[in-house]
UniProtKB/TrEMBL annotation:
The lineage of its organism: Bacteria, Bacillati, Actinomycetota, Actinomycetes, Pseudonocardiales. This is FAD synthase. SUPFAM superfamilies: Nucleotidylyl transferase. The keyword Transport does not apply. It comes from the Bacteria. It holds the Pfam family FAD_syn.
Length: 235
């Protein structure tokens, strides 16, 4: 059972796709293999748009595991992969490598050179290669693009509703300042209610992306962003 997609953020729509694959796999006594891409394909091919990671790749893998994936295959997305024809990609990855008996995708999934492959083509390939295809309807209003917009606007409650959990950042504390790692999707500068190690506290985000917290020892940290403090002043 193969689940195919970018899954950048593992929001509620992604979780629903995984849940469908899990149910099919349990009925057929098959494992679920989630196939994803890194970096986001749009950073290599396609129109220029915001592809800032909502979670790190490591967290994407953890969330996939937590939501029903037995195995995760990360395909490095580069110009060589972007140039592969959709039929060639499907046969090499789904048929020859994974021996897929069923493939689950979102109904808007695109693949292959120039994004020319879609669910209709995948159905055609599946009939020839003897795997079934399940195109899952999208969850209305739930997309990674919308999650990014809400976070950048500062609507952390709205983002949490789509994600199914609060948004968080990871980084290192040095002298009370958190330097986020490569995962840098931040809300606007200001003061925020946050949770660190299950304890509520307050953090301040500077315009340059530096995050200030009080009374934190130096070292790695995960900050769960809850909501913006009203009337907080941007610097």
């Amino acid at each position: 059972m193969v689940v195919l997609g970018v899954f950048d953020g593992l929001h509620r729509g992604h979780v629903r796709v995984l849940a469908h694959a899990r149910a099919l796999a349990d009925a057929r006594r098959r494992p679920v293999v989630l196939v994803t891409f890194d970096p986001h394909p749009a950073t290599v091919a396609g129109p220029d748009r915001d592809t800032t990671p909502i979670v790190s790749l490591a967290e994407r893998v953890r969330l996939a595991d937590r939501n029903g994936a037995d195995h995760i295959l990360v395909l490095p997305f580069d110009r060589c992969l972007a140039a592969v024809e959709p039929e060639q990609f499907a046969h090499h990855v789904l048929v020859e490598t994974l021996h897929a008996t069923a493939v689950v995708v979102g109904e808007n999934f695109r693949f292959g050179r120039g994004g020319t492959g879609d669910v209709t083509l995948l159905h055609q390939i599946g009939r020839e290669a003897r795997f079934t295809v399940h195109g899952m309807p999208l969850l209305t209003g739930c997309s990674s693009t919308q999650v990014r917009k809400l976070i950048r606007f500062g609507d952390l409650s709205g983002a949490a509703c789509l994600l199914g959990r609060p948004h968080h950042i990871e980084g290192w504390v040095v002298d009370g300042r958190i330097h986020p790692d490569s995962h840098r999707l931040l809300p606007p500068s200001g003061r925020y209610h946050v949770h660190i190690d299950d304890h509520p506290t307050v953090a301040e985000i500077e315009p340059d992306g530096t995050v200030h917290v009080a009374d934190r020892p130096d070292g790695p940290v995960t900050v769960w962003l809850v909501r913006r403090i009203e009337n907080s002043t941007r610097r």
